[in-house]
Design goal:
With 238 residues, this protein is mainly beta. 10% of the residues lie in helices and 28% in strands. Strands 1, 3, 5, 6, 11, 13 and 14 form a 7-stranded antiparallel sheet that branches. The protein has a 5-stranded antiparallel sheet with strand order 2-12-4-8-7, with helices on one face. The chain has a two-stranded antiparallel ribbon with strand order 9-10. The protein binds zinc ion.
Protein backbone atom coordinates (compact mmCIF):
# COMPACT_ATOMS: atom_id res chain seq x y z
CA UNK A 1 0.00 0.00 0.00
CA UNK A 2 1.28 3.43 -0.89
CA UNK A 3 1.64 6.17 1.70
CA UNK A 4 -0.26 8.83 -0.23
CA UNK A 5 -3.37 6.76 -0.60
CA UNK A 6 -5.89 9.60 -0.64
CA UNK A 7 -8.95 8.07 0.94
CA UNK A 8 -10.23 5.99 3.78
CA UNK A 9 -12.81 3.20 3.60
CA UNK A 10 -16.43 3.89 4.46
CA UNK A 11 -17.63 0.70 6.18
CA UNK A 12 -21.14 1.63 7.13
CA UNK A 13 -22.35 -1.60 8.65
CA UNK A 14 -20.85 -3.45 11.58
CA UNK A 15 -19.68 -7.02 10.85
CA UNK A 16 -22.54 -9.47 10.37
CA UNK A 17 -22.20 -13.08 11.52
CA UNK A 18 -21.82 -15.53 8.64
CA UNK A 19 -22.06 -19.30 9.14
CA UNK A 20 -20.22 -20.30 5.98
CA UNK A 21 -16.47 -20.68 5.62
CA UNK A 22 -13.87 -21.69 3.05
CA UNK A 23 -15.21 -25.24 2.89
CA UNK A 24 -18.93 -24.58 2.42
CA UNK A 25 -21.46 -21.75 2.21
CA UNK A 26 -23.98 -21.09 4.95
CA UNK A 27 -27.34 -22.84 4.63
CA UNK A 28 -29.54 -21.16 2.06
CA UNK A 29 -26.62 -19.56 0.24
CA UNK A 30 -25.21 -20.42 -3.17
CA UNK A 31 -21.45 -20.70 -3.65
CA UNK A 32 -19.81 -19.47 -6.82
CA UNK A 33 -16.65 -21.52 -7.28
CA UNK A 34 -13.51 -19.52 -8.08
CA UNK A 35 -13.56 -17.85 -11.51
CA UNK A 36 -17.26 -18.49 -12.19
CA UNK A 37 -20.44 -16.44 -12.53
CA UNK A 38 -24.16 -16.82 -11.90
CA UNK A 39 -27.42 -15.28 -13.07
CA UNK A 40 -29.82 -14.45 -10.26
CA UNK A 41 -33.27 -12.95 -10.48
CA UNK A 42 -33.93 -10.38 -7.76
CA UNK A 43 -37.60 -9.35 -7.53
CA UNK A 44 -38.33 -5.74 -6.66
CA UNK A 45 -38.14 -5.29 -2.90
CA UNK A 46 -35.91 -8.33 -2.37
CA UNK A 47 -32.33 -8.24 -1.15
CA UNK A 48 -29.26 -9.61 -2.88
CA UNK A 49 -26.49 -10.50 -0.44
CA UNK A 50 -22.90 -11.04 -1.52
CA UNK A 51 -20.37 -12.46 0.96
CA UNK A 52 -16.65 -13.05 0.65
CA UNK A 53 -16.32 -16.36 2.55
CA UNK A 54 -12.52 -16.53 2.57
CA UNK A 55 -11.34 -12.92 2.43
CA UNK A 56 -9.53 -10.88 -0.23
CA UNK A 57 -11.87 -11.78 -3.10
CA UNK A 58 -13.66 -9.47 -5.54
CA UNK A 59 -17.21 -10.09 -6.82
CA UNK A 60 -18.29 -8.29 -9.97
CA UNK A 61 -21.96 -7.31 -10.09
CA UNK A 62 -23.95 -6.31 -13.16
CA UNK A 63 -27.67 -5.53 -13.29
CA UNK A 64 -30.29 -5.55 -16.04
CA UNK A 65 -34.01 -4.84 -15.83
CA UNK A 66 -36.35 -7.81 -16.21
CA UNK A 67 -38.90 -5.66 -18.06
CA UNK A 68 -36.32 -4.55 -20.62
CA UNK A 69 -32.82 -6.04 -20.42
CA UNK A 70 -31.56 -3.18 -22.59
CA UNK A 71 -31.78 -1.10 -19.43
CA UNK A 72 -28.62 -1.84 -17.45
CA UNK A 73 -26.47 -0.65 -14.60
CA UNK A 74 -24.66 2.58 -15.48
CA UNK A 75 -21.51 3.08 -13.45
CA UNK A 76 -21.18 6.58 -14.89
CA UNK A 77 -24.63 7.72 -13.83
CA UNK A 78 -24.21 6.00 -10.46
CA UNK A 79 -21.01 7.96 -9.80
CA UNK A 80 -22.59 11.16 -11.09
CA UNK A 81 -25.84 11.07 -9.15
CA UNK A 82 -24.25 9.90 -5.89
CA UNK A 83 -21.48 12.47 -6.33
CA UNK A 84 -18.87 9.90 -5.31
CA UNK A 85 -16.89 7.05 -6.82
CA UNK A 86 -16.99 5.25 -3.45
CA UNK A 87 -20.58 4.16 -2.94
CA UNK A 88 -21.78 2.50 0.25
CA UNK A 89 -24.89 2.04 2.38
CA UNK A 90 -27.73 4.32 1.37
CA UNK A 91 -26.33 5.04 -2.08
CA UNK A 92 -28.33 4.01 -5.11
CA UNK A 93 -27.32 2.17 -8.27
CA UNK A 94 -28.69 3.84 -11.41
CA UNK A 95 -29.43 2.64 -14.92
CA UNK A 96 -28.45 3.96 -18.34
CA UNK A 97 -31.96 5.51 -18.40
CA UNK A 98 -31.54 7.17 -15.00
CA UNK A 99 -33.80 4.76 -13.17
CA UNK A 100 -32.87 3.62 -9.66
CA UNK A 101 -32.18 -0.10 -10.03
CA UNK A 102 -31.12 -0.87 -6.48
CA UNK A 103 -30.17 0.64 -3.14
CA UNK A 104 -27.18 -0.44 -1.06
CA UNK A 105 -28.61 -1.53 2.28
CA UNK A 106 -25.62 -3.11 4.03
CA UNK A 107 -21.88 -2.87 3.57
CA UNK A 108 -19.30 -4.08 6.07
CA UNK A 109 -16.34 -3.00 3.94
CA UNK A 110 -16.90 0.39 2.30
CA UNK A 111 -14.48 -0.30 -0.56
CA UNK A 112 -15.84 -1.10 -4.01
CA UNK A 113 -14.93 0.03 -7.50
CA UNK A 114 -17.08 1.65 -10.15
CA UNK A 115 -14.36 2.62 -12.60
CA UNK A 116 -13.06 -0.59 -14.18
CA UNK A 117 -14.66 -2.91 -16.67
CA UNK A 118 -14.86 -6.61 -15.76
CA UNK A 119 -11.71 -8.59 -16.40
CA UNK A 120 -11.76 -10.12 -19.88
CA UNK A 121 -9.58 -12.28 -22.09
CA UNK A 122 -8.10 -9.05 -23.39
CA UNK A 123 -7.28 -8.00 -19.83
CA UNK A 124 -5.15 -11.07 -19.45
CA UNK A 125 -3.62 -10.70 -22.92
CA UNK A 126 -2.62 -7.08 -22.20
CA UNK A 127 -1.85 -7.01 -18.48
CA UNK A 128 -0.66 -10.55 -17.76
CA UNK A 129 2.10 -11.14 -20.33
CA UNK A 130 3.23 -14.15 -18.33
CA UNK A 131 0.11 -15.99 -19.52
CA UNK A 132 1.26 -15.58 -23.13
CA UNK A 133 -2.26 -15.18 -24.48
CA UNK A 134 -3.53 -18.49 -23.14
CA UNK A 135 -7.31 -18.77 -22.67
CA UNK A 136 -8.24 -17.58 -19.18
CA UNK A 137 -11.58 -17.43 -17.33
CA UNK A 138 -12.88 -13.90 -16.97
CA UNK A 139 -15.66 -11.95 -15.31
CA UNK A 140 -16.69 -10.52 -18.68
CA UNK A 141 -17.20 -13.95 -20.21
CA UNK A 142 -18.95 -15.20 -17.08
CA UNK A 143 -21.29 -12.20 -17.10
CA UNK A 144 -21.95 -12.68 -20.83
CA UNK A 145 -22.77 -16.34 -20.25
CA UNK A 146 -25.01 -15.50 -17.30
CA UNK A 147 -26.99 -12.79 -19.05
CA UNK A 148 -27.21 -14.14 -22.59
CA UNK A 149 -30.22 -16.40 -21.77
CA UNK A 150 -32.23 -13.29 -20.84
CA UNK A 151 -31.29 -11.33 -23.92
CA UNK A 152 -28.41 -9.13 -22.79
CA UNK A 153 -25.94 -8.69 -25.63
CA UNK A 154 -22.24 -8.68 -24.66
CA UNK A 155 -21.96 -5.18 -26.15
CA UNK A 156 -24.40 -3.98 -23.45
CA UNK A 157 -22.07 -5.04 -20.65
CA UNK A 158 -20.09 -2.02 -19.53
CA UNK A 159 -18.41 -1.06 -16.31
CA UNK A 160 -19.43 -3.35 -13.49
CA UNK A 161 -19.93 -2.69 -9.79
CA UNK A 162 -16.75 -4.36 -8.57
CA UNK A 163 -17.69 -5.34 -5.05
CA UNK A 164 -14.78 -5.43 -2.58
CA UNK A 165 -12.32 -4.24 -5.27
CA UNK A 166 -9.83 -1.68 -4.00
CA UNK A 167 -9.03 0.74 -6.84
CA UNK A 168 -7.71 4.23 -6.22
CA UNK A 169 -5.66 6.89 -7.92
CA UNK A 170 -2.65 8.85 -6.73
CA UNK A 171 -2.64 12.65 -7.20
CA UNK A 172 -1.05 12.36 -10.64
CA UNK A 173 -3.87 10.07 -11.76
CA UNK A 174 -1.93 6.83 -11.66
CA UNK A 175 -4.19 3.87 -11.00
CA UNK A 176 -3.58 1.49 -8.11
CA UNK A 177 -5.28 -1.81 -7.37
CA UNK A 178 -4.72 -3.06 -3.84
CA UNK A 179 -5.83 -6.46 -2.55
CA UNK A 180 -9.46 -6.54 -1.43
CA UNK A 181 -9.51 -5.41 2.21
CA UNK A 182 -12.06 -8.06 3.11
CA UNK A 183 -11.83 -10.73 5.76
CA UNK A 184 -13.94 -13.90 5.79
CA UNK A 185 -17.62 -13.08 6.13
CA UNK A 186 -17.55 -9.51 4.87
CA UNK A 187 -20.84 -8.62 3.22
CA UNK A 188 -22.41 -6.29 0.66
CA UNK A 189 -26.17 -6.17 0.16
CA UNK A 190 -28.52 -4.34 -2.17
CA UNK A 191 -32.31 -4.06 -2.29
CA UNK A 192 -33.80 -4.21 -5.77
CA UNK A 193 -35.97 -1.20 -6.56
CA UNK A 194 -37.25 -2.86 -9.74
CA UNK A 195 -37.27 -6.49 -10.91
CA UNK A 196 -33.67 -7.28 -11.77
CA UNK A 197 -31.46 -9.82 -13.38
CA UNK A 198 -28.17 -9.79 -11.52
CA UNK A 199 -24.97 -11.35 -12.81
CA UNK A 200 -22.54 -12.03 -9.98
CA UNK A 201 -19.01 -13.38 -10.39
CA UNK A 202 -16.15 -14.61 -8.28
CA UNK A 203 -13.50 -12.54 -10.05
CA UNK A 204 -11.05 -14.44 -12.23
CA UNK A 205 -8.13 -11.99 -12.12
CA UNK A 206 -5.34 -13.23 -9.89
CA UNK A 207 -3.75 -9.81 -9.43
CA UNK A 208 -7.00 -8.29 -8.20
CA UNK A 209 -7.41 -10.97 -5.54
CA UNK A 210 -3.98 -11.02 -3.91
CA UNK A 211 -2.75 -13.85 -6.10
CA UNK A 212 -5.44 -16.46 -5.54
CA UNK A 213 -8.96 -16.66 -6.97
CA UNK A 214 -11.45 -17.75 -4.33
CA UNK A 215 -15.23 -18.39 -4.10
CA UNK A 216 -18.06 -15.93 -3.48
CA UNK A 217 -21.32 -16.74 -1.68
CA UNK A 218 -24.65 -15.15 -2.54
CA UNK A 219 -28.36 -15.39 -1.86
CA UNK A 220 -31.63 -13.56 -2.40
CA UNK A 221 -33.94 -12.89 0.52
CA UNK A 222 -37.37 -11.39 0.57
CA UNK A 223 -38.18 -8.10 2.22
CA UNK A 224 -40.04 -9.88 5.04
CA UNK A 225 -36.90 -11.67 6.11
CA UNK A 226 -37.48 -14.99 4.38
CA UNK A 227 -34.31 -16.41 2.92
CA UNK A 228 -33.95 -18.40 -0.23
CA UNK A 229 -31.21 -19.20 -2.61
CA UNK A 230 -32.48 -18.43 -6.06
CA UNK A 231 -29.95 -19.06 -8.78
CA UNK A 232 -31.22 -19.05 -12.34
CA UNK A 233 -33.15 -20.83 -13.78
CA UNK A 234 -36.21 -20.10 -11.72
CA UNK A 235 -38.70 -19.91 -14.54
CA UNK A 236 -40.06 -16.76 -16.11
CA UNK A 237 -40.21 -13.60 -14.05
CA UNK A 238 -43.32 -13.37 -11.89
ZN1 LIG B 1 -12.76 -10.19 -12.70
Amino acid sequence: MTDFRPRTPRPTTKPVAYEGDSSAPAEGWTRLPPQTGLLIRVPAGSMLDIVDPCGQQVADLYLACVDDPMENLSAGRTVDYNNTVYVSTGDRLWSNRSTVLATIVSDTVGIHDLTLTPCSQQTFDLLYPEFEGAPHPSCFQNICDALSPVGVDPDRIGTTMNVFMDVWTSPDGELHIDPPPTTAGDRFSIRADVDLFAAVTACSAEKSNNGTCKPIDTRVRSANGGSSSTPWPLGPPA
